Amino acid sequence: MTARVLRRVAIFVVSVLVASIVVFLFMAVLPGDPAQVALGVNATPELLAKTRAEFGIDRPLVTQYFDWISGVLHGDFGRSYVTREAIGPQLLDRLGVTLWLVGAGMLVALVIALPAGTFAAVKHRKAAGAGVSGLSQIGVAIPAFLAGIILVQIFAVRLRWLPSGGWTPPDQDFGEFFRGLVLPALSLGLVQGAVLTRYVRSAVLDTLGQDYLRTARSKGLRPGQALVRHGLRNASVPVVTVLGLQLATLLIGAVVVERVFVLPGLGSMLLDAVSARDLLTVQGIVLVLVAGVLLVNFVVDVLYTVLDPRLRGS
């Protein structure tokens, strides 16, 4: 098991390194001059040359990459081409907002999907199970941003129970923080919960037909007891796979949801940087998002080993 985990760690490190190279090269080949963007169209050639030297973009690409990645490894993402402010502290603050949103969204999805998917599988031959499956299919077809708009219209505009947007740090006023997080988390969680419900149903339904579960029931266990004791762990392996993919989807989906609810997360920062053509900031944000997705995949691989004993000896 230890060798497998160490091998996955090595793959994760190499993947992040390759991703950093791809992100850097992609930003480097984009048209446009960061110095020209920062200074405007009326800048003199002398001032442009001075600014390029200040930004370090007049050096060879290999030198630029190693300077950038060595800084990233020490927490220094450089300075914004537009505002001249350090990118690292901004990334850290915005990342906290996004992690709160993604974590709350995933919690909502799990709270919905695990009982609903299990119920739909156990009752798959009855009207109640078919109804849950139908509702989940409808939820899959609704984009997260549309769910957010509908929730705002109902709970913020008409009922006035919750704010329509904005962000309050939890250390300032936890009550307002919680109220402001409810609708964005529901926007992400309801849609992803509908998707996850379909996979939980399929996994549990497949487990219910296994021989070992029928054997457990023949020994006197009730269907629910047999499922809890012997079935759910096996059913969780494919669900964990989908859960990892959904976490990556939530990270990307948060970009739009943050815009809808005016949350100062990585998504809003990314869109602002793109509109301002602040390529170094975009480069840092994309690397953080890619590294986050790779980290999720790494955790999922480790969970496979924990959940499935057959992988420990392979």
CATH class annotation of the domain at 95-275: Mainly Alpha
Shape: globular
Q: Tell me the β content.
A: under 5%
> How many strands in all?
0
Give me the CATH architecture of the domain at 95-275, please: Orthogonal Bundle
Order of helices and strands: HHHHHHHHHHHH
Class of secondary structure makeup: mainly alpha
Arithmetic mean of pLDDT: 83
Assign the CATH topology of the domain at 95-275: MetI-like fold
Tell me the number of helical segments per DSSP (H or I, 4 or more residues long).
12
Helix content: over 70%
Main location: membrane
Transmembrane segments: 9-30, 99-122, 134-157, 177-196, 239-262, 282-307
Protein name: ABC transporter permease
Keywords: Cell membrane, Membrane, Transmembrane, Transmembrane helix, Transport
State the main characteristics.
314 residues, mainly alpha, MetI-like fold, globular, transport
Question: What do these coordinates show?
Answer:
This protein has a domain at 95-275: MetI-like (MetI-like fold), CATH 1.10.3720.10. It is mainly α. α5 runs antiparallel to α6 (127-140) and α10 (223-260) runs antiparallel to α12. It contains 12 helices and no strands. The chain is 77% helix and 0% strand. It starts with a helix and ends in a 7-residue tail after the last helix.
Secondary-structure blueprint:
Blueprint: H1 2-29, H2 34-39, H3 45-55, H4 61-73, H5 87-122, H6 127-140, H7 144-158, H8 174-208, H9 211-218, H10 223-260, H11 266-275, H12 279-307
Transmembrane segments: 9-30, 99-122, 134-157, 177-196, 239-262, 282-307
Domain ABC transmembrane type-1: 95-300
Keywords: Cell membrane, Membrane, Transmembrane, Transmembrane helix, Transport
